[in-house]
Amino acid sequence: MATTLSARQHGLPTFDGVHSEVPGGPKLITNHNDVPAPKPAQFSILEVLAQQCDITDEAIQDAYPCTPFQTVRIRESIQVTGLRHSHMVYALKDEIRENIALFKRCWELAFNRNPILRTRIASLRNANSRETFVQVVVKDEFRWEIVDDTKAYQRTERFSGPLRTGVPLVYFAIDEALNHFVLTMHHALYDAYTLSLIWGDVKAAWNAKGHIESAVARPPYSRFIAYLQRPPSDAASSRWSHPYRSAQDGQNRGLTDWPHAVQVTGGVFETKPSLPGSRNVRHTAVIKAAWACTLMEAFKTSDIVFPDYFTGRCCSVPGILDIAGPTICAFPFRVQSRSDMTLAHMLENVQREVTDILKKEHWGLLSPNARAYTETNGQYALNVINVFQDSGDKQDNMWLNGLEPVAGEFPFRGGWDCLVRVIMQKRQMIWTFFADEARLGREVSEYISVRFPELLEVFSDPENHERNMKDLIGI
């Protein structure tokens, strides 16, 4: 049994309750001296976490609250069977197959260097039965599984059944029959940037032939958690009260397991050397404007509010670019169009919106879930989301020589009608559009899938920057 002393030795507090999340981010678990002594005897949080994770308290290296993004992902997995585990499958070429021991060693080094790969998530309740999720970094042993059927492995109870808190959330496996490597991670533990960091460690170890005996530990993810607990400024708070006060949650259709077919289309778009309008307009603004105007046409409105995810790597946290862990934030993004507005004016407005959000990205949003936002005139309940991933210079770190990604099933499940994912590279954008036809309708789904790349082309052409919006989009 863990004791108060052992908890303090691990740097963890003992207290009478768990403090729940506050708007703008979770509140760090701290030992409040001003809290009156509880009537029952104090318990050790370390003991509770160890028991839920089925480990000894000595195996716990760190513990801190989850971000709102992580909380939503875990709650979804608890509520919906088989939700949020991502199976990334790679075909092993000869270079890897002939030296599988080195490949395993490289992953073991990455496993030890990145605490996020050894993180579990536990559930705690305070005296009022308010639930808080805590992430627990475990001093765990690296495990490698051998499977004989990749698809059957993905359908096993640990992934297809209800999620139980406290269990491992990262798994490594080799399918010897198909020569596949399967990396399974719960989405509460990673974002695209985190994956690039981890793959970068694996690649560095591979190039060093596994002779990296020890690597400097990454900056702890708890730094990001500490950043989230700081109270937002008045300016950040007011940023979220206006103009989104009228953009309330729309129809709550709940979560779904996507029992029906999902339409998937996509393509590659070559970026132009220059952009219309101001030199301060970036490709991110062009993408968001094209997506917003596509939705305006599809839903026949000139005023759109949709939830958007952002990387979150722009916050003022020391070492944020080296921290492995999800920094994703979500925010309501508003785009308006007027018939007398030029395209350049539209793009500058969108860029201004993006720039303003960068300063306050994590504050004031109570739920980062991809729920519907009612369009500002109250007539439409849109359930759409735009995801933008900036891979930057880390794109080549995603794969080792000798590895190929294997196309899998539709990876996103939840309360979304449609989603467009854009991966930005130096000279091109790779876009993929997903639509739930049963909920959105085939006609609207097909319209969006065709119109989005068309508007992306139009908005990226400098020759169109002085044209009026009424000549470019049909509302």
What secondary-structure arrangement, pairings included, does this model have?
Layout: H1 4-9, E1 14-15, E2 43-44, H2 45-53, E3 60-65, H3 68-79, E4 85-92, H4 94-97, H5 100-113, E5 119-125, E6 131-138, E7 145-147, H6 150-154, H7 157-160, E8 170-175, E9 180-186, H8 192-207, H9 222-229, H10 234-241, E10 263-270, H11 283-299, E11 303-310, E12 329-336, H12 343-359, E13 373-374, E14 381-382, E15 384-390, E16 403-405, E17 418-424, E18 428-435, H13 437-440, H14 442-460
Parallel strand pairs: 7-8, 11-15, 15-17
Antiparallel strand pairs: 1-2, 3-6, 4-9, 4-16, 5-6, 8-9, 10-18, 11-12, 13-14, 17-18
Family: Belongs to the NRP synthetase family.
GO biological process, one term: amino acid activation for nonribosomal peptide biosynthetic process
InterPro entries: CAT-like_dom_sf
Protein model, in words:
The strands form five sheets. Strands 10-18-17-15-11-12 form a six-stranded mixed beta sheet. A five-stranded mixed beta sheet has the order 7-8-9-4-16. It has 14 helices and 18 strands. The termini are far apart. 30% of the residues lie in helices and 21% in strands. The N terminus is likely disordered. The chain is globular, with a radius of gyration of 23 Å.
